[in-house]
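Still learning folds. Look over my entry:

…
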Amino acid sequence: MKSLKPSAREKKRYLLIKGKNLKTNIQNAILDFIGFLGMSKCGLSWIKSGKDSAVICINREMVDSVRAGLCVFPEKISVEKVSGTLKGLRKK
């Protein structure tokens, strides 16, 4: 199978998120704010999930929509950092 050209690949951003019960709250926040079509466009994938923090990977064009959805969600979810690489996310 031939690999995709760099111009055809989906560009991703990594988000470090803090809050409670993140596995369900993040998905519910995105679904409530941008719906099913927006959820499929953002291409959400879980990189690392801990007790009070998580690292998720989303499409670059949907970063603003996802951040807005997390801000208006009733439970407190905060985006600590956004990065283009996982290594850059770990640096402080």
Q: What stands out?
A: The helical segments are 22-42, 63-72, 86-90. The chain has one domain: 17-84. The two ends are 39 Å apart (CA to CA).
